[in-house]
Amino acid sequence: MNNKFKALLNALLAEGYIILVALVMYYGVTEIERETIFIPIFMLSLFVLSVLVMGYLFLFHPIKLYLDDEKKNALELFFWTVGWFVLMAVIDLIVLLLV
User: Fold this and answer.
1) What is the per-residue pLDDT for 4?
2) In what helix (H) or strand (E) does residue 90 lie, and over which residues does it extend?
3) How far apart, in whole angstroms, are the C-alpha atoms of residue 47 and residue 53?
4) How many domains would you assign to the chain?
């Protein structure tokens, strides 16, 4: 699998994860009517989980390639992933402004 396709797949998975978290926060939080200590605990846990997921999607394969002495491929994969993700973020912004 070439780097451009792998990067696109990683960026799509990251976008999908963000959409899933946003849906849970949008629809799930409205159902909670009382304040409790578990809300900040859940939010911090979700933050840590998000860092882990995004770290895996953006960094795991490039670091693995880099350590296997494939530095050019590692940097290419990382920057293609970031590029695809930036493109998706711009599309999200355009959709937000149009809706």
Assistant:
1) 93
2) helix 71-98
3) 10
4) 1
